[in-house]
Amino acid sequence: MKAFFIFSFLILGFIISVPAQKAGTSYNETFIDYQKSFPRPGDALKRKADTLQKQFIEKGLVWPAKYIYIRSFKYDSQLEVWVKNNREDTFQLFKTYKVCALAGTLGPKRMEGDYQVPEGFYYINEFNPKSSYHLSLGINYPNESDKILSDSFRPGGDIYIHGSCVTVGCIPVTDQQIEEIYILSAHAKNMGQDFIPVHIFPVRFNVKRSVDYMNALMFNNPGLKPFAKKLEEAFNYFERFRQLPVITTDEKGEYYVHGMKDVLKPKPVIKKAVVQHRYRHITDVAEVVHQWPVFPGGGDAFLKYLDKVGNKLSHELPASVSKAHVQVEFIVDTDGVATNFNVVNGVNASFDDNMISLLEKMPVWQPAILNGKSVAKRMKQSFTIKPSDSLSRQ
What we know:
With 394 residues, this protein is of the alpha+beta class. It contains ten helices and 15 strands.
């Protein structure tokens, strides 16, 4: 019989309760107020809160997030923070952080002193504002599975996501990065998310190079395959639904990922309505002109406009795409209207279609001039779309 334990419920992110009262705090004091009473998180909140809020706005997210989900990939050295504000919503990726260093190798932690970073399904159980590593967030290793499968007397402990960029078995990031992760987690806890899920995977299971590396290591240790398979199931569930699966542990310490039958079902084919984009029958497009088309406000204004378009599109990038180099061409007609958009280099059909729809809303240009008359002129523009504060143009 499958044995449920508390983590089975908390990974859904559904638990809403009043944050636990800390020693020395008043009943009117919030968790954020409590964190502000310490120098490091207090200073970080002053410096970072406004910046984080702006980043949320740029990505179409609501600040602060009520629910966050953290997942880390050991071999790929990445830590992601996903956010949402309603239980029924799907998670959206806020940011991917670079993990500074990796202790040990792939595979779960099974005893004290093995320098292994754990693998499995955990949650944040401690906020340490006085950490020796700037700031730190403790995770509940050993969890119920680890208590069964790890060394009975010395399973190890004290596993943290922390700053200072050094590790002997934790998940280290820079001080600037842990400040952001700490603030995001503190706000979520402040609004009732007492159990913030942290999933730690050996690799990104949708990156062939990473999976090949893991399989090569497991060739001499096939006993790790069943464990890795359960982690992959949870990864695939989230990739499919952008929601967290219910996970339970049986009496042998093995994970059971519920809902995998739904993952294996083919995705329903949704017929998308055909969008009719702006098109004009233009027979005479000038190759050489005396004056090129001018965007309202000039070239700098056009680049800023592309920034805005990129910011709106960045949260639509597929999860497997960290950034996209796109190139579009269009015609500025004799009346200054940009028309006949074509994506020369894009991401996928749906993304490219949305990009054209946004670009078609650009303001009217001053048309190109040839021999004192307005003429149609073909334009080509490249730029980079990525989930960050700035976009580079080429």
